[in-house]
Records
---
Amino acid sequence: MKNVLIVYGCGGHKKQADRLCHQLSITGDEINFFSLTDSGEKPNWSEAHLELKEFRDKYTGKIISLFEMLSQIRKIYSYLRKHNIHNIISMGPGVCILVCLVAKMMGCVIIHFETWSKFESLTFTTKVLKHITNNVFYQNIELKKFLPNGKYVGRL
């Protein structure tokens, strides 16, 4: 049984997470899904849920304080250990960055999906995560020039 953490934000990111979990659950593989977000309640596909404060305000660029960052790192680490999670799927916003950094230090496998709404540039999250993992998937072929080592997978 694999324990997989799905990290996502609200709105379209959550919709993509819902679709991905549905598709993965019908493959016949035994997977327990866990969820982590910066906004929202536990989805019905999730065994356990953690909500963290946004790492970075997307409008001002302001990053959380050092104290808050250390507190979040502790929560992420404890959550991953408690649920024996070694596989992370990132679906979007800034909350994914800190989670993936902690997961990388713990030796987890990280997969990142660039959002389906990007055609002409990368999100800040993808600009960071492409240096943390080799597993970057994009949903619009126009992004190939920005992610030569990524993999085009089409829309979820």
---
Amino acid sequence: MTLPTIGPPADHEINALATLMRETIERLDIYSERAKHAEFAKYTPDAIRALAAEDPHAVIVARDDEGLTGFCLSRFDDGTVWLSWFGTAARARGRGIGTALLAALAGTLPARRAHKIWCDSRTDNLKSKSVLERAGYQRIATLANHWYGQDYYLWEVYP
């Protein structure tokens, strides 16, 4: 198996990206069904294409010789970047892909004229918490009963 390459998705990869995101979100037992369905509706192939067209740094994927291995979606937000989602295909976990995607996202800040990245994660999402901490993110707040009535941590990093 070759090492993954990281960069923007090719147009022919967008459907596979939407499928990978759906599969990743679907497996999250820490998300309510209502939250999952809202995210499915947000990240359709057309919505991902529109996000990438609006900001060429907003959608990053990792791929190897078998296809997509990971994804990172973000949006520019008034001098900061909001990390919306990142994830790794089940077949590729444990290979540092999440950390590599976060590093690639940090590399987009100068081109986007942004000074920091921020995001949230479910308080019980231990995998995400671990990757974010390894990438230097600091937990800055706990948001109780937040999105969809669930508890979240708010994170930031100044790469």
---
Amino acid sequence: MATNPFLPGLILALAAWILPLAVRLLPARILSGVHSRVPILAEWTPWIRSIGLPYLGLLLGWLSSRDFGLTGHTAPEWIIGAAAAIVLGILLGRVCLRLSIGIGWGVIGDEARWTLYRAAVWPWVTYLPLAVAAALLATCAEFALARKFGGEKVIDEVGMLFLAHAAGSAVLFLLAHNFFLAMLFYLTAKIASSPDIQLSLRTILEKTIRK
């Protein structure tokens, strides 16, 4: 069960959501000046936003570790959640193969940020499905606005892969509310989407059948 609402956690989630939009609204000369003077900032900003802000919220007690999916799980929840993470990860991996698009390490940051949204909203709405739905809507709006500001299509192959990943992550949190299993979901998808691993598994299977 979610803990009592705490406003700083919600403000932190809003900051994580609005930060890239605010940066895009800055004049181009200011952005180029910052990048030229502090080039490492452009590289680290996405990680600070997606990993640093959730960690700050947990460290300061602005987010509940239970709401974030770090504690309080029963053995049945682990088992059911692990099975769901593997199944959903395989499905996401198949989508990657179908679209011929890989998923990178930045997905870990996405998972942490999406979990921040859920953990910040859940205590306020007190109903997990509603919190997950609100967070999913926020992530979709975030993605659509970023693509629109970047002059890219919202609904294309990248958009389809995003929807598959975001929906799978949301369903998994709804079933298990376990952040660690979100990592299993991602790693399973990474393995399932690798052509080399697919070929190796097929070779092993063929050798086993021949024996």
